[in-house]
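Fold this: SWIM-type domain-containing protein
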Amino acid sequence: MAYGIAGSMLKYFQDKIAENPSFQYALQMDCEEKIASIFWADARMVLDYAHFGDVVSFDTTFGTNNESRPFGVFVGFNHFRETVIFGAALMQEKREKNEGKKKEKIEEPSILSDFSACMFQYEEIAEFEQNFDLMRKKVPKQTWLDSIYKLKEKWAAYYMKGVFTLGMRSTQLSESLNNDLKINFKSDLDLIRFFKHFKRVVQGKRNTELNSEFDSRKKQPRIFMRRPPAMLVQASKKYTPVIFEAFQGEYERSLQACAKAMDGNNEYLVGDFTYEEGYKVIGDPSKQTVVCDCQQFDRVGILCCHALKVLDIMNIKLLPPQYMLKRWTREVRAGIVQDNLGRNIIENPKMDAMLGFKFMSNKFLNLAYRAAYYPECIMLVDSTLDVLDK
């Protein structure tokens, strides 16, 4: 990075820290001691990561400014299943060893759809292996398929059954964000203008959450039953509307599901046995726990209809607290978040100062009003303020 550009960038970051000490950035230097890569996150991003950083997607597919540096964005889901941004990075462009070598092209048009099926549809290992092998035979020579197959544990549905992903598919969040970036960015932006435009995109996402928050407080979620059970009422008050809707769908399916007792204690095979095979569910009434073979809770953080069915069989009428993840609730942002130095992270210090000013002004105004009727009180308050003013 050129000296002048680096200086402007560092000044921009220092100004941000002066506005809010919780702003963070980090630099990586190259062998010539020039800035190669940059990472930054403002206070709100740090707070968002503390609340929603259990699943993070990182994507570098978006081309950025006139230096054509790879741009990476760390994103996740908030409690409304909307995109939330945790940080961003501009990285050094890696040069290929064979720059003149043509990039490999996928000639078979069905390869991408076949690969998508291998990624998301096949939940049994034999089915996955068979279909991947058929897809591989469509390509006559060694391709990226061979290298990506070695990483199948990181992307194939069968291997991702018990992985906590919140239901996020591939890089869908980053792809959604890239659409907004393309609208706001131009290829000829200098670095500082790039930062400002990115800030505008981030603010747009935050405004979306603010609107969702307003709507969720303005009206309560709609419960489909006229006389709703206690568990649905409980969930409607705790969950955000979009999460409650998903939970209510599972509850409705649990009412239609059948349960067959198995040999073990509190073991059941649960399903509708028409459109799906049953899943084995093991319950423990004393600990108020349920474990289902479908592993939906392990992946998404919302109990499946099979587990809800067994909870009802065990006469557990309220959702146990361990199955109501705070990250999906209305109160997820409650509480204090501290940085690695133990300092409270404040999203907007100016707003806090304004609130403090309003609080103190009211107290001083009330004190002045009461003291004004007594000369000795006026003298006491006046002398005390002189001492505090020093």
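The chain has four domains: 3-95+167-213, 111-154, 230-328, 349-389. The beta strands are 24-29, 35-41, 57-63, 70-77, 83-90, 258-261, 267-271, 279-284, 289-292.
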